[in-house]
Amino acid sequence: MRSFLRWSLVVGLLGAAMWAQTATPESTTKATTANKKRAATAKEEEPKPKMATAEDLQALRDALNQQIQKLEEELNKLQSAASQAQQTAQTAVSQSAEQKQDVAAVRSDVTDLKSAVTTTTAALQETQKKMDESPIALRYKGIAITPGGFLAAETAWRQKALASDVNSAFSAIPFAGSSQSQMSEFFGSGRQSRLSLLAEGKLKHVKLTGYVEGDFLSAGVTSNNNQSNSYTLRQRQAWGQAALAGWTFTGGQMWSLATETRNGLDNRTEALPMTIDAQYNVGFSWARQYGFRVTKKLGNTVWLGFSAENPQTIFTAHGQAANFLIGSAGTGGGLYNSTANYSFNPAPDFVVKAAFEPGWGHYEIFGVVRQFRDRVFPNALTGTPSAAGAYNDSRTGGGIGANARVALLNKHIDVGLHFLGGDGIGRYGTTTLPDATVRPDGTLALVRGAQALGTIEFHFPKFDIYTNAGTEYAGRTAYVNAAGNGVGYGSPLFSNFGCTTELVPGSSGFAPTAPGNCTGDTRVFIEGTLGFWYRFYKGAKGTLQLGPQYSHVDRNTWSGISGAPQGTDNMFFTSFRYYLP
C-alpha cells in the first residue's frame, strides 16, 4: 500500500514539473493558421528552454520524501485509529455479549427468585396451615407445654341397677334375688372430661418429658347428684421422664407396664379399648399406679423394659377365723381413705416386658412377679386367745402375659389379642377379681386367674367401629376347717340358697338388702361390646365426635349348696365429646 502511494506521488510530481517547464501541450486547442504562423515567429525569436539541473532534481526528491514522510505519518495515525476503532468495536461486541449474558443471567436470577418467592410463600402457607392443624405448644423457658384432653357429655343406662356412673362396677352385677335386678338406672355425667398437660424440653443429649392427666371420676365426702353435682378432680397420671441414647427412665403414676402399648414401650401410646365405659372391657389387663420404669430400644424392632410398681392385695375369703392380719383401713394422717382397706405390702410388684415390631404388627410378652404377706396368729383360736407365736407368712405369685396387634387392609382394620394368667394377678384385670384368700390356719392362698380380650376395630375417615369380647376367671381356692366348714374362695360348701330370693329393704329407702345365704363367688365374667364413634369434625380446631356403645355382661359363679347363681346386665352408653386440638 505504501509503495503504491509513493510511486504515484513521484509520477505525479515529475509530470507536474515537466508540465510547468514546457510550452503549451499539444492538447491545446488548434489555433488558426495565422496564429500558428505568429507562434512560429515568436518561437524563433524566444530563447530555448533551460534543462533541469541535478540540484533541481535533488530538491524535487527531498520535497517528495517530505511529502511521503507526512503521508506515512498520516497513514500510521489512520492505521492506529483504525486499530483502536477495531479494538473498540471488538470490546463493544464482547461487552455486548457479556451484557447479553448478564441480562440472561439476571433474567434467570429473576425467574429463580420468582420461583423461590412462590415456593417460600407456599411453604409459609403450608406451615401456617400445619400450625393451624397441629396442637400449639406454649413456650416457657425453653420448654414446650401442650395442653390436651377432652370435654364429655355422657349417659349410662343399665337394665340392672349398679348405682355407678359411666364406669361399671362389674363385681356388683346383681343376682336375681337382688332388688337392683328388678330396677334399671339412668345417669348423665360430664365427669369423664379429661384435662392433660405435656411438658417437653431438650438438653444436648437428653430429652426431658413431664405429663399430668386428670378427670372428675372421684367422689369427696360432700359429693352428690342432688344439685351441684360436685365431684373432685383425681390424678390419673403424673410422671416425669428422661430419654437418651435409646434409654428411657420414667417415674410417677402411670399405666402399668403390663398394659399393652401401640408403639414400642412408650408412655402415652397405651392400647386402650375404645369404650365409653370408663372401666373399659372385661378381659383388659391394666393398672394406673406408681411406677419407676426403665426401657431400652434395641435397633428399630425390639424394646426391653423393667418396672417396679405400687402393690396392693385384693383379698376375698369366707368362713375364715380371726387368726391373720393383712393390713388396715387407711388413716387420715397418712392421707389414705379411711373407708378403704390397704394391705401391708412387703415389696413392689415387678413387671418385665419385651416388645417386638418386625414390620407386620406389634407383639409383647411380659411377666409379673408379686409378693404377698400376712401375719398369722396360731394361738388366736385357743381357749385363751393370745398373740404368742405370731409370725409372718409370705407368698410369691405372678403371671405371664402376651399381647398381639395387627393392622390389616392398609390399617383400616386392627385386630388385637391379649392374655394374662397366673397366681395372684386378679387386681390387674378390669373386674378386680381376688388375688388371694386364706387357709384355715391363717396363711395366705393365692387365687389362680386368667384374663383374655379380643378386639376388632374398623377405621374410616369419619367412623371408628369397635367390638370387644373379653373374659376373666378366678379359680376355686377352697379348704375345709376342723369343724368341716368351707373356707376360702368358691367352696362347694358355701350356701347359695338365698341368691334368688328378694328381701325387704331398709327403712331409709336407700338401703337395699343383699340376699341372705348367698355367697356367690364369681367364677368367670364374660362381656361383649359393640360401639362406634362418628366424627363430625376433625381438624385445626380439634375433634367433635359422637358415639353409642352397647354391652352385655354375664357373671357366672362357683357352684355351692343350691347351685350356681348368675347375674346378667345389658348396658347402653352415649358420649358427645370435644377433643382439644
How would you describe this structure to a colleague?
The protein is an alpha+beta fold and 581 residues long. The chain has three helices and 25 strands. A hairpin with a 2-residue loop joins strand 23 and strand 24. The longest helix is centred in the N-terminal third of the chain and has 80 residues. The chain is elongated, with a radius of gyration of 54 Å. About 8% of the residues have low confidence.
Provide a brief overview of the structure.
It is built from 3 helices and 25 strands. Helix content is about 20%, strand content about 40%. It has a 16-stranded antiparallel beta barrel. The chain has a two-stranded antiparallel ribbon with strand order 11-12.
Unreliable parts: 4-50
Radius of gyration: 54 Å
- What portion of the residues fall into strands of 2 or more residues? 35-45%
At the first level of CATH, the class of the largest domain is: Mainly Beta
Question: Given the structure, what is the number of helices?
Answer: 3
Shape: elongated
By helix and strand content, what is the structural category?
alpha+beta
Q: Can you summarize the main beta sheet?
A: 16 strands, antiparallel, barrel
- Bin the helical content: 10-25%
Total separate domains: 2
The CATH topology of the largest domain is Porin
Order of helices and strands: HHHEEEEEEEEEEEEEEEEEEEEEEEEE
CATH superfamily of the largest domain: Porin
Strand order, largest beta sheet:
2-4-5-6-7-8-9-13-14-15-16-19-20-23-24-25
Mean pLDDT: 87
CATH architecture field of the largest domain: Beta Barrel
